[in-house]
Amino acid sequence: MKKNSKQDLLWIYRKMKTSRYFEERMEKAYLEGKQPVFNIGAGPVPGEMHLSNGQEPAAASMIVNLTKDDTVTATHRPHHQAIAKGVDLKKMTAEIFGKKTGLGKGKGGHMHLFDPIVKFSCGGIVGAGIPHAVGAALANKKKGTDRVAVAFIGEGAVNSGAFHESMNLAALWNLPLVVVVEDNSWGISVSKKNSTCVPTNDVRAAAYGIKGYGVRDNDPLKMYEVSKEAVERARKGEGPSIIEIETYRYLGHFQGDPELYRPKDEVSKLRAKDPIERLKKYLLEETLASEEDLRVLDQEIMKEVDNAYEFAINSAYPEPEEALEDVFV
Amino acid sequence: MKKNSKQDLLWIYRKMKTSRYFEERMEKAYLEGKQPVFNIGAGPVPGEMHLSNGQEPAAASMIVNLTKDDTVTATHRPHHQAIAKGVDLKKMTAEIFGKKTGLGKGKGGHMHLFDPIVKFSCGGIVGAGIPHAVGAALANKKKGTDRVAVAFIGEGAVNSGAFHESMNLAALWNLPLVVVVEDNSWGISVSKKNSTCVPTNDVRAAAYGIKGYGVRDNDPLKMYEVSKEAVERARKGEGPSIIEIETYRYLGHFQGDPELYRPKDEVSKLRAKDPIERLKKYLLEETLASEEDLRVLDQEIMKEVDNAYEFAINSAYPEPEEALEDVFV
Amino acid sequence: MPFDRTRMTINYLTMEATKQITRKLTGSKAMAQALEQEMNRDKNIFIMGEDVGKYGGIFGSTTGLYEKFGQERIMDTPISETGFIGAAIGAAAEGLRPIVELMFVDFHGVVMDQIYNHMAKIPYMSGGSVKLPIVLLTAVGGGYSDAAQHSQTLYASFGHLPGMKVVAPTFPNDIKGMLISAIRDDNPVVFMFHKTLQGLGWMDQLDASLGPVPEEVYTTPLDKAKVVREGKDVTIVGVQMMTVEALKAADKLVERGIDAEVIDLRSIKPIDKETLLKSVAKTGRMVVVDEDYYSYGITAEVSAIVASEGFKHLKAPIARLAIPDVPIPYSRVLEKYVIPDANDIINAVENMVTY
Amino acid sequence: MPFDRTRMTINYLTMEATKQITRKLTGSKAMAQALEQEMNRDKNIFIMGEDVGKYGGIFGSTTGLYEKFGQERIMDTPISETGFIGAAIGAAAEGLRPIVELMFVDFHGVVMDQIYNHMAKIPYMSGGSVKLPIVLLTAVGGGYSDAAQHSQTLYASFGHLPGMKVVAPTFPNDIKGMLISAIRDDNPVVFMFHKTLQGLGWMDQLDASLGPVPEEVYTTPLDKAKVVREGKDVTIVGVQMMTVEALKAADKLVERGIDAEVIDLRSIKPIDKETLLKSVAKTGRMVVVDEDYYSYGITAEVSAIVASEGFKHLKAPIARLAIPDVPIPYSRVLEKYVIPDANDIINAVENMVTY
Ligand SMILES: Cc1ncc(C[n+]2csc(CCOP(=O)(O)OP(=O)(O)O)c2C)c(N)n1
Ligand SMILES: Cc1ncc(C[n+]2csc(CCOP(=O)(O)OP(=O)(O)O)c2C)c(N)n1
Ligand SMILES: [Mg+2]
Ligand SMILES: [Mg+2]
């Protein structure tokens, strides 16, 4: 790890922590109004809720290499990437609470966060964001910029037709695209072994004559290194690549998932290797930060997140008739 | 080439010749009613017409390894595979002439030939037949048979999502499937170079951890050898594979294609290497057949094809109201 | 998506099995029972889909089947809808009887080609020589803030296209009977089940989602609507949740002296004209309520049929209630505004009787 | 698919360019002219599709553009509709103005998810913060024996879903004006052009496919129907080829003393109610003719609108002519039977005036 990466590593730590804390609050907010009897449609945050606790390295260690003008497309599990990309946290939280002040005026919801200012989008259809990233990369190239586009997807999405068509296009047109596969072992209840005919998806780069990288064991440092290389290559016009990171899904697929399909101790084993803790240890050991530095940082983070929740909670709901607006511009 | 393949090679020759002659007649039949002014909807054979002259080795040298109970799915360019698979030639011709005696009672047409007796089907949507072959292979496996399924596709179809999803499924479930890619260099007017980010599609087998084979220069003997191996592997439960054969499209994408997109001399160069002539030479050189044998064979073929045309031409059209039948069984 | 039982109380609607011949089942249990009974009868039936195995189907359609039939017959798939729904076509052509689940109907766009160009047309294009006995199960409906890509019903998107029977039963009894009919039909059948009517412990609890279901095997026609409440003043036509809302509205209309007849459409394609026309001949007035989009939807087709063939009976224009041609918004207040409910129906009826 | 000119005489409909301000163009030339003029105006416009480059579009929509704009702006794509139509969404979100061609509308099933879940909904889901100025060009229509997977119009499959404007102009003048409007619109527009109305040298030669088109740039509204023939006895509503058939029918009806008004719908979504209602207020009778499938199609939606809002004007039930819910068969005699034509219209009108 090069010396000049100190700033980057602290940034990664901050973003991972922000996402983690944001989601811990979200887990609670989601359960409001759903106790003692769970009802998916009840409470201030209704609908499906996909949390990314444990998967933070995939997002933060990649996005540290991006600027505001690079594009990110994400999935149904979008908070960690959105936070790393710098999506307006207040508006994002308000959106998840269905408020008028939200990114989509309450029309989108947690799976549909759009912040064109930092070029972030996501969506609820598996695989569908990859072509959008291809299009952004194409636009970047057409405009003669060195901007890149990054598509985040789950390992399950790699088996969708959209993945294949997109990778072929990106390679054929030599576009500045990086696809990050967050391999959390599961697509809802279907294990990677039961969905994917090859052990790791980086080998699939061969089908497109592009670079494929693998990151083992949710390692934020390795992810940083590899992402940096992939993004730099894309910026220099050296074409697209695929990065697959082995990551952890601490929670159910969505909140409310009974998780009967996975071993009871899987998560506790994963939690013992928590990537935020690992990075913290590294920062301290390498004296890139002191305990005190991190404590202060943590407090900043909590304040930022708490402010966002406060904003969201205090914002007004849209008027019913606003449902009819924004179909067309 | 092993001695015991004599019969197979003669079979391949017969099927290639049958297809060639069948299509030469079709080319003429198609132009009837379309002269002096071409109108796609006129004449006894209206609609689009995709001929396979030049591509015969892909079909015959593969299908010689199959039985009636193995399944073939084909494309919008289906005659050579249909003929090799043993589709009832009379009914097939009648179908193309839109007659009541046709395979589909005149409802299908040239792109939609279904002969369940020999397990043949095809269709007009690029890539769409591959999943059907996966399903047939799955059925074969479920029934505990050693039957295989073969999907024929063009090189253009390899870039469709359906290809990728199907290959992953077939490899994941270890199904008896072989995908034959007929690389005729063109998807209508789009060259392989402009559609495909890798030079050959056999390398894409790596994305599925399966076997990939390449056959150069439309070679019927090599295609036979490779197909035999792939089919045997599939029968033995050793899983799916991909074969890409470099083949030639002598005619336009469809009849009526101005072909302004390809060099004027491309086809004459290809015709000089005609695979039927090459196989004929081989048969004679290796004394697997005499000139006289082949002359007799050719006559048999012509008679069979002529009979089919006669049957088709003399058959009645359906009654208009029959359009309302067969939506449901 | 049953909620984690270790963490929270669930309102279990499903009653314990008894020795009675008819017991109350939820929609989801009615589906699973139909599937189980038919799979026992016919070894050629198997099920493919995402999370249909151990999970038992995200909306409980295959609950308990994996344990009974194993992974050969209850097959979890990758997220490859074109691949596995296309594979169902190939397997059906070989004589098997696949049942495939498209998890949410909202995802149909990734696989519509296989559904409407192949599954629905091959029997016709083959002149009847290829049969495709496939059931496509798919979950529909909104009302629980699942937003624009997970809340649609898309009844008409399927109903518009030839070659498929399309059904959308409401009550557990019909769910079982129509699913068995669908499985036994030699044609492709799209079987839409409404999430909220599955009687799942983690969604809204509705009386309608629990109902008497005979234990024995029985079939219910795929092409018949059903008068679920008789009345003489106005006919209200609904499907699934809109039938439930229509019944609610009818109860309240009584207080206002209006006696409404309620028809549960059940079959999206074909539409049972006779039942509609017979009712309107009696009432002379009709409200059609749909949880699908307004334009080119059920309200259009039913109105057109009745306006044309029941022209002389109509005392007032037919009223159409449906999602007003906007995507389904996330926020509860917005979603509630776009999905019709009992109040909207009552208003429509009141406007109409004063026409 | 222009026929090989070296081998055969072609009936060229396209007239030579002159210095006149308005000249006669075919549908295809009108499209290409609109595209060219707009691409000259705005560098952010580019076109992607299969065979849109040297080939000039299988149905001539991009004739000559590759030569003028080169491969950076006229991009041939692999057969990856989800990939490149999805890419158009991503590029539009970055401020470009992509025009994408789906070669035949029949192929929509491989890419419908990108079209209806993303292109059509992102503007709404983003609360208006993301604009997607995309034109989706697609060829529709049958009548030349291209069979079940290449002959559909699917007007209602698009019209049913929110978030897209859907147009289907008939005449070259409207084709140019509506295409320019579509390109300038900041919303997704599905622009359907009918193969037979492109005036291609290798298809049926129709008078309607050649018409006066001003050389200058102009726009035609995307939401207005057009009365293309005035009359007082009956209103016939058509789209594209059915408008052509309606005009033919109207000419023959004169001989029988019936004066028909013909409306070219032009806009599938939204439907221009006012024009329809105004006409029916005058004539009191309506026939709706559609080259799409019957159920849940244009005939349903138009009937429903008129039966509801024009109820009091109707002297007879509205007649619906459309493809009778069967896939489109190949054989000419069968196809002719399922696609409505002038004779069917005449019969419907005659039945109606004696109602
Ligand atoms: C096309 C499509 N099919 C199915 C689904 C339902 N679904 C939502 S998330 C999911 C699993 C996704 O797995 P993966 O890509 O690994 O992402 P993860 O949830 O693990 O982050 C599925 C099947 C969907 N949203 N879209
Ligand atoms: C999904 C889809 N997209 C586009 C088409 C139009 N189309 C028909 S054939 C063809 C080219 C196919 O190329 P290839 O797969 O190489 O087969 P070939 O025609 O060379 O035999 C195209 C683009 C189609 N039929 N289906
Ligand atoms: Mg996953
Ligand atoms: Mg090809």
Features:
heterotetramer, A: 329 residues, alpha/beta, Rossmann fold, 6-stranded parallel sheet, two-stranded antiparallel sheet, 11 helices, 10% strand, globular, C: 355 residues, 2 domains, 12 helices, binds thiamine diphosphate, binds magnesium ion, Transketolase_C (chains C, D), thiamine pyrophosphate (chains C, D), pyruvate (chains C, D)
Would you write up a description of this structure?
The complex is a heterotetramer, with two copies of chain A (329 residues) and two copies of chain C (355 residues). Chain A is of the alpha/beta class and 329 residues long. Chain A has helices spanning 6-31, 56-63, 79-85, 89-96, 129-142, 161-172, 192-195, 220-235, 266-271, 275-285, 291-314; strands at 71-73, 120-121, 149-154, 177-183, 186-187, 190-191, 211-215, 241-246. Chain A has a single domain (5-313), classed as Thiamin diphosphate (ThDP)-binding fold, Pyr/PP domains (Rossmann fold, 3-Layer(aba) Sandwich). In chain A, the strands form two sheets. In chain A, strands 2-1-3-4-8-7 form a six-stranded parallel sheet, sandwiched between helices. In chain A, strands 5-6 form a two-stranded antiparallel ribbon. In chain A, helix 1 packs across helix 2 (56-63), helix 1 (6-31) crosses helix 3 and helix 2 packs across helix 8 (220-235). Chain C has two domains: 18-212, Thiamin diphosphate (ThDP)-binding fold, Pyr/PP domains (Rossmann fold, 3-Layer(aba) Sandwich), CATH 3.40.50.970; 226-352, Rossmann fold, CATH 3.40.50.920. Chain C has a seven-stranded mixed sheet with strand order 3-2-4-5-7-6-12, with helices on both faces. In chain C, strands 9-11-10-13-14 form a five-stranded mixed sheet, sandwiched between helices. A two-stranded antiparallel ribbon of chain C has the order 1-8. The model of chain C is unreliable at 1-19 (pLDDT under 50). Classes of the chains: A alpha/beta (329), C alpha/beta (355). The interface between B and C is large, with 45 and 41 residues. Bound molecules: thiamine diphosphate (2 copies) and magnesium ion (2 copies). One magnesium ion binds at residues 154-156, 184, 186-187 of chain A.
